[in-house]
Amino acid sequence: MFDLGKEWTSFECPKCKYEIDIQLIDLNDNEQTYCNNCKVKIQFDDKNASVETSIKKINNALRNLGK
Ligand SMILES: [Zn+2]
User: The pTM is what?
Assistant: First the structure.
């Protein structure tokens, strides 16, 4: 089994739409991050929901890889 916490995911900056890469473990450990492009602070308001969504996306990606 691989550790999902070490998996990378990405999301769009709400301000500039820049794609931000982040490790799932950082989503768990930090309450905020910064956009690499416009430096806006991004707060993970609903961390659990965000991580859950990310994991779902990864599972979908893995399924697609298996095809
Ligand atoms: Zn940005």
Answer: 0.52
